[in-house]
Inverse folding.
């Protein structure tokens, strides 16, 4: 019997706020252990939580961008379990009344866009970080660092809408882009800023009911999500093919060894004893505040890509590359405001992205060196054929190292751009005079020889001529001669 | 200072004496320890932690402010950076917080000095102060009897003269009932008016810091200094707190509800006689009695114990021996560390309530218990609101009995829980309430009444408490604002 997989994702997103979720401690990554703690995030007796409005706003920005329904009144709840990295032995989270409901994330290029439906997004606090075991003599113990305890987290839960692990990978890539686009999170999976659990079950194709699901935890890279899910789907398929049943369980995936291990089975399932957090009032979101947030949202990446296709004539592919990152799209659009849109896109995608790749730098650093208006000035000259392509690349290289506009750079390097026909005609005539045999061949229909003649002009111009313009000049001149109006006629040529 | 004993002075008078240089802050703070404590403390055991050095340091830092040099006993569940804060539990033996509770900070900023940390039922769970890991506190009016609880230590200390004021916490009557048993005034403010930041939580939605005093004016003074929003407590009530400066303004025209149906049965005759007396006094002062039947939900006790234990089971989860507090030695694994530390650290009553609360919140029971209790609670609040459409405040017993004997209810948790029957309504409704003494019962045991007000009705309650003080036949007016307190006599 053919089976299909049904997958839902649960993503944990560390917010990029300065402070923690329920106290004023810094939420930064990488401080000395227990450097960023206070009575609240340590869960000391008597300490009380207070909601960080910056975190609520970040959650709302994401919810609005994803088209979620925002609850006017959402409720924090306590989720209880005992673990040393959970200071209060309960986590403050949201349960039956989360901040955001529904919504969807568009994934893929404009032409092949798919929307994956979401269940909910809610706010919660992160736990401390355990490291274990540590050895001291013959004793083994665990260490807990509470810097992470109380860092704001969003939990985003999708509906069970995925059928293939690759779809999940594409979803996560799109989610990561959006989180950075909105400045909600740095979403670095290596640093645990974006974490993902997956629920997966199999069912016979054509059946609507869901099968028994398992949960995969610790999928700490997009590749890990894809590989872990593939491994789990194969495991479940084998069980079903062998006539056995899948048992509800939580599994850990070890991406290095491509191995799955059962963390706990259904019998050990926790009763989290959720109840409304009595230390925090209902979280109220005012309509006016929501409108202000909505107005301040950047155009989402998918809408921006669609606009670039519609208004700038870019291909869906190019638009999607330029909208990988908001700052890159900003850079592109600033460049395209000065120069032709498609040529700008080519320059940003080939030259700028190449430099970023080679230097492993950010677009912001790059833009500090070569502002978009500066690159736009160059591209505009190229578009106007005032600067030939090869020379333009040389100018671009100078731009990376030196100050100054296009003219200034050319002057400094003693180069004169010869894009104009008037500049090039003398050279063309010179070459025509020096290579009469070749001219005759061209007139006889040998177009390769024309390339040779163009090359001679390029050489004379020391690369500063525009090959296209030179071509056009030759074509015009030769056509004139072929028509018999040539003042000098090469011997042996056709009349 | 000669001529009068400093420890007998109301807080206002004592602060004035310090500010004018009549005595030093250290003399003001030490007076209670040198005089009455020498006589009483050995028997009463009101204080769990006395740190003479911290007291001296506090007095040295506090010669200014409206409470300059006034000693205040602070219940042992309010965090203090210079005294241990143990909730009188083995679980927190030796624990000293790195911060002051907001009310403690405001107390110090006003010039107040902590006189000592008051004994209490472990984690504020109890009605007799018998469940303290340091042993029981006794009632100074009869050492064979309990001072009430859970804030029995602060109540007894104020009663015998250690300090004119004390801070307690009131989750279901833990300030008003011991105040009644010890013959002092006990105020539980409107929920959210005194910050809970730094109050070790028992039941967050019911807990409220409360004030003990011998005089209505002193209670008003301390309330005005402590009340108000706290950015560190998200449940603190926004907006300015009620103005209590009119505490001596009289009760002319005030309507007090007289729900006599509440004490038709199950209430001691002495308590009922005290209610009659209070009503007569209030009427004599110009107030009007409004009799009506009041049924504040027959399920109040059940609703209260469901909500309180549920929240307690969650709030007390953090005491696990991992980061602070009692840790069982040589536990072979994490589970053993938790169970051994908690089994040894918590006393029987605390464990009983954690188990009850865990059960209340368990899957499959949550709706039946917790949700039902919340519905009952909402109804109880509505019923109180309805009552306040007919009267300005409600007069009723603070407790169904006079102070009972030590050990009398130790083996009967239900009987102990029922001693809160008249007080827990105000916690469920979130409204302010106050207990104030009337003439002692035959045999000299303190007797008191309770008054409940609408949200932010603290001013009304204090005016009524003042009226009782002034009208009381026991009261001899020394000065217009000063009523002589009836002191216990040692026997």
């Amino acid at each position: 019997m053919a089976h299909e997989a049904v997958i839902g994702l649960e993503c944990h997103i560390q917010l990029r706020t300065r402070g923690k979720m329920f106290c004023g401690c810094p939420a930064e990554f990488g401080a000395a252990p227990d450097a960023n703690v206070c009575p609240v995030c340590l869960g000391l007796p008597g300490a009380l939580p207070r909601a960080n409005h910056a975190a609520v706003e970040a959650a709302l920005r994401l919810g609005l961008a994803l088209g979620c329904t925002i609850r006017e009144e959402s409720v924090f709840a306590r989720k209880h379990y005992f673990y040393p990295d959970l200071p209060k032995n309960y986590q403050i989270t949201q349960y039956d009344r989360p901040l955001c409901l529904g919504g969807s994330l568009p994934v893929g290029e404009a032409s092949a866009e798919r929307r994956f439906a979401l269940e909910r997004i809610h706010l919660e606090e992160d736990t401390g970080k355990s490291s274990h075991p540590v050895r001291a003599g013959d004793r083994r113990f665990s260490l807990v660092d509470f810097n992470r305890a109380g860092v704001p987290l969003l939990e985003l839960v999708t509906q069970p809408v995925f059928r293939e692990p690759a779809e999940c990978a594409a979803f996560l890539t799109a989610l990561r882009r959006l989180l950075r686009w909105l400045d909600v999170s740095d979403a670095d999976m290596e640093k645990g800023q974006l974490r993902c659990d997956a629920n997966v079950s199999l069912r016979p194709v054509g059946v609507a009911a869901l099968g028994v699901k398992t949960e995969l935890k610790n999928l700490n890279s997009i590749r890990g999500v894809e590989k872990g899910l593939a491994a789990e789907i194969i495991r479940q398929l084998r069980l079903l093919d062998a006539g056995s049943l899948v048992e509800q369980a939580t599994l850990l995936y070890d991406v290095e060894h491509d191995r799955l291990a059962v963390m706990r089975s259904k019998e050990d399932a926790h009763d989290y004893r959720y109840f409304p957090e009595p230390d925090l009032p209902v979280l109220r979101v005012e309509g006016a505040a929501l409108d202000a947030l909505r107005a301040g949202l950047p155009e989402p990446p998918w809408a921006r890509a669609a606009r670039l296709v519609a208004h700038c004539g870019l291909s869906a592919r190019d638009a999607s590359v330029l909208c990988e990152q908001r700052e890159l799209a900003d850079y592109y659009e600033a460049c395209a405001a000065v120069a032709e849109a498609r040529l700008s896109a080519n320059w940003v995608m080939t030259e700028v992205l190449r430099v970023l790749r080679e230097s492993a730098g950010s677009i912001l650093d790059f833009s500090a060196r070569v502002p978009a208006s500066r690159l736009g000035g160059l591209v505009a000259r190229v578009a106007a054929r005032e600067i030939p392509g090869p020379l333009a690349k040389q100018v671009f290289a100078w731009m990376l190292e030196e100050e100054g506009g296009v003219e200034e750079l050319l002057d400094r390097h003693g180069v004169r751009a010869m894009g104009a026909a008037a500049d090039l005609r003398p050279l063309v005539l010179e070459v025509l005079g020096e290579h009469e045999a070749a001219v005759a061949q061209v007139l006889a229909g040998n177009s390769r020889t024309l390339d040779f003649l163009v090359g001679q002009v390029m050489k004379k111009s020391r690369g500063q001529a525009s090959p296209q313009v030179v071509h056009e000049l030759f074509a015009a001149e030769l056509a004139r001669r072929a028509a018999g109006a040539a003042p000098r006629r090469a011997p042996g040529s056709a009349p | 200072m000669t001529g009068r004993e400093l420890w007998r002075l109301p807080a206002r008078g004592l602060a004035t004496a310090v500010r004018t240089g009549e005595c030093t802050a250290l003399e003001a703070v030490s007076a209670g320890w040198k005089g009455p404590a020498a006589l009483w403390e050995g028997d009463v055991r009101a204080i769990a932690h006395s740190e003479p050095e911290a007291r001296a340091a506090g007095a040295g830092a506090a010669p200014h402010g409206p409470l300059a040099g006034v000693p205040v006993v602070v219940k042992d569940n309010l965090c203090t950076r210079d005294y241990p804060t143990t909730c009188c539990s083995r679980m927190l033996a030796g624990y000293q917080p790195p911060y002051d509770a907001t009310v403690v900070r405001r107390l110090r900023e006003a010039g107040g000095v902590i006189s000592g940390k008051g004994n209490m039922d472990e984690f504020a769970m109890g009605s007799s102060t018998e469940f303290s890991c340091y042993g029981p506190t006794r009632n100074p009016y009869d050492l064979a009897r309990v001072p009430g609880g859970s804030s029995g230590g602060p109540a007894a200390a104020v009663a015998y003269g250690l300090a004119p004021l004390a801070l307690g916490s009131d989750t279901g009557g833990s300030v008003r009932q011991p105040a009644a048993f010890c013959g002092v005034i006990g105020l539980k403010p409107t929920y959210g008016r005194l910050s809970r930041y730094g109050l070790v939580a028992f039941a967050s939605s019911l807990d409220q810091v409360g004030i003990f005093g011998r005089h209505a004016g002193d209670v008003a003074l301390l309330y005005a200094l402590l009340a108000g929003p706290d950015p560190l407590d998200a449940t603190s009530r926004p907006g300015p707190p009620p103005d209590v400066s009119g505490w001596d303004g009289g009760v002319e025209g005030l309507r007090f509800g007289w729900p006599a149906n509440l004490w038709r049965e199950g209430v001691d005759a002495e308590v009922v006689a005290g209610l009659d007396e209070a009503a007569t006094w209030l009427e004599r002062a110009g107030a009007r009695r409004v009799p009506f039947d009041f049924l504040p939900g027959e399920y109040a006790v059940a609703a209260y114990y469901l909500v309180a234990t549920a929240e307690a089971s969650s709030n007390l989860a953090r005491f696990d021996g991992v980061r602070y507090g009692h840790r069982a030695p040589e536990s072979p694994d994490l589970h053993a560390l938790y169970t051994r530390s908690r089994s040894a650290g918590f006393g029987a009553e605390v464990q009983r309530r954690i188990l009850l609360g865990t059960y209340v919140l368990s899957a499959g029971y949550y709706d039946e218990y917790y949700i039902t209790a919340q519905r009952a609670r909402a109804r109880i609040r509505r019923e109180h609101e309805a009552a306040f459409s007919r009267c300005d405040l409600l007069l009723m017993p603070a407790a169904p009995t006079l102070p009972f004997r030590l050990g009398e209810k130790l083996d009967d948790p239900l009987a102990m829980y029922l001693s809160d029957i008249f007080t827990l309504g105000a916690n469920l409704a979130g409204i302010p309430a106050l207990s104030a003494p009337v003439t002692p019962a035959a045999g000299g045991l303190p007797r008191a009444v309770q008054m409940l007000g609408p949200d932010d009705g603290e001013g009304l309650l204090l005016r009524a408490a003042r009226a009782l003080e002034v009208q009381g036949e026991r009261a001899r007016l020394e000065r217009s604002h000063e009523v002589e307190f009836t002191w216990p006599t040692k026997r």
User: Anything to note?
Assistant: The radius of gyration of chain B is 21 Å. The longest helix of chain B spans residues 366-387.
